TrEMBL record:
Protein name: Nitrilase
Membrane protein topology class: Multi-pass membrane protein
CN hydrolase domain ranges (all copies): 242-457
Keywords, in A-Z order: Acyltransferase, Cell membrane, Membrane, Transferase, Transmembrane, Transmembrane helix
Database matches in SUPFAM superfamilies: Carbon-nitrogen hydrolase (SSF56317)
Cellular localisation: Cell membrane
Protein's organism: Dactylosporangium roseum
Segments traversing the membrane: 29-49, 61-83, 103-125, 132-153, 173-199, 211-228, 472-489
Length: 507
């Protein structure tokens, strides 16, 4: 009614916030194309198997910066195209190394691209409604919530996620001990969103002070907490662990084959030297041998004797076939016998015929737990171990050489979430160990022949906010996203809230 009266009196009608923004010059096509290409390049190098961590922070920035002046379809298509192009850096890994069907890979990348497009479009919509501060919070919240729910349904669990790109940036990754990886992903999206607001003065100049304050708070919380947490883990008794790999021609060698016997002899020959360096535990890779019920008895006899002679617990991964099926197991042999852990999270395609386990297992009379490779892609399993007071996790693993960094770091991040040191021995990958804060204490690529190292880990147990409260931050992000969507469909209030922003007009 007010607009009609204004027109009758010869005055221009008042514009809604949306109309005010829409009236501004739209983003030229060439700018949108440039932003898409720049984000794609930054995503290519800032994510993947060997990411450059600093580029991850910048990758979404160009699209956030142009989103407010683009149409919703243009912003969505640009974001989806940038993500799809950038994440093609994982195509050959998924297809050639993991041998995933092309349709599955396309569906996975398309889902992530849709998540990214939704994040950008939500940011755009809130900016056009001049809910600037909310846009800086809700868009990264939508991304973090999307990552969380994807981890619940994806056969890959929480792998891969944006947070792992920061695994070696210790002050940042400490946030995972409070929020899980979802908090790190939130900050990785919130930072470029906030910077983008400062790049759009005609849309959001009035909100600059609030956005600057928000950036200051996020930075202070993330880095302040990070540096503080790096010094909060109490010193504890240590355990010396040997990590050992003998390169073999194929996974799961038949124990009774000539190469199988040679590999076993080589492992046993290495134990005295490792024991003399102080190692009380030796961790070998996943699926070293393929064994039957008869084989595992013979193997157990030899390893039990070796454990007694060297006073060393020997942990080895095996493919074990018996009357109940095929199992991916980690056997831990001591002078007094053995314990068995069955892998709980199996690799789709590769281990479809295997039977998963469901129990947590620790070495006898210790708080040292066992897990296998892909188990460490699932935060819940490590959190269950931490809830039982486990002080160290031993992880036989098997990589494909070039994914050694990413897969070892995802395991280390589980250690940060739970304050549990991780010792991981990966065939065709890396021998790695990290303390409860994710500090890398050992990181050696496995090569032809024998690769070994000895590392002393400070044992726990300790605990974290994430262990106690679980995925609280992911649910908080879900609620914030839902509230933002509700607010988008609310009519703007009459009066001050509906006045056009004149801060950019010439006097």
């Amino acid at each position: 009614m007010g607009s009609v009266l204004d027109m009758a009196r010869g005055r221009p009608a008042k514009k809604s916030p949306e109309a005010s923004v829409a009236a501004e010059r739209a983003t030229p096509l060439w700018v949108l194309v440039l932003a898409t290409a720049t984000s794609a390049v930054l995503l290519w190098f800032g994510t993947g198997l060997n990411p450059i961590s600093g580029l991850t922070w910048l990758a979404p920035l160009p699209l956030f910066a142009v989103a407010a002046r683009a149409s919703s379809w243009a912003a969505a298509c640009a974001a989806a195209l940038a993500w799809s192009a950038g994440e093609l850096n994982m195509w050959t890994y998924f297809r050639d190394d993991l041998q995933m069907p092309a349709g599955v890979v396309v569906a996975f990348l398309a889902f992530q691209a849709t998540m990214f497009a939704g994040t950008i479009v939500l940011f755009r919509a809130l900016m056009r409604r001049r809910r600037v501060v909310l846009s800086v919070l809700a868009a990264p919240a939508a991304w973090a919530a999307g990552e969380y729910f994807m981890s619940l349904v994806s056969p890959g669990g929480a792998f891969p996620g944006l947070a792992y790109t920061q695994a070696d940036t210790l002050p940042v990754i400490q946030l995972a001990s409070a929020t899980g990886v979802w908090g790190v992903s939130f900050v990785l999206m919130a930072t470029p969103a906030a910077l983008a607001v400062l790049c759009v003065p005609t849309v959001a100049r009035a909100a600059w002070p609030k956005v600057v304050a928000l950036v200051a708070v996020l930075s202070a919380v993330t880095l302040g907490y990070g540096f503080w947490h790096l010094h909060t883990i109490e010193s504890a008794p240590s355990v010396t662990i040997a990590l050992l790999d003998v390169r073999q021609s194929e996974d799961s060698l038949p124990l009774r084959s000539p190469e199988g016997r040679t590999v076993l002899d080589t492992y046993l020959e290495q134990l005295p030297a490792l024991a003399s360096s102080g190692a009380t535990i030796a961790v070998l890779p996943e699926k070293v041998f393929k064994v039957t019920s008869t084989d595992i008895v013979d193997l157990g006899d030899r390893l039990t004797v070796a454990a007694a002679v060297n006073r060393t617990t020997i942990v080895i991964g095996l493919t074990f076939e018996d009357d109940t099926g095929v199992h991916n197991v980690a056997m831990a042999y001591t002078a007094n016998g053995a314990v068995r852990y069955d892998k709980q999270h199996l690799v789709p395609g590769w281990e479809d015929d295997f039977t998963p386990g469901n129990e947590l297992v620790s070495l006898p009379d210790t708080q040292i737990g066992l897990a296998i490779c892909k188990d460490m892609d699932y935060p819940a399993l490590a959190r269950r171990y931490a809830g039982q007071g486990v002080s160290v996790l031993l992880v036989p693993a098997l990589d494909v050489d070039r994914d050694g960094w990413l897969h070892s770091r995802s395991a280390m991040v589980r250690g940060v979430e739970t304050a549990v040191p991780i010792a991981r021995s990966a065939g065709r990958g890396r021998l790695t160990a990290s303390d409860a804060n994710g500090r890398v204490l050992a990181d050696i690529r496995t090569t032809a022949g024998t690769t070994a190292t000895t590392v002393t880990l400070p044992a726990g147990p300790s605990t974290t906010l994430y262990v106690r409260l679980g995925d609280w931050f992911a649910w908080l992000c879900s609620v914030l996203t839902a509230l933002a969507l509700v607010m988008l469909y609310q009519r703007p209030r009459l009066g001050a809230a509906s006045r056009p922003d004149r801060s950019h007009r010439h006097r």
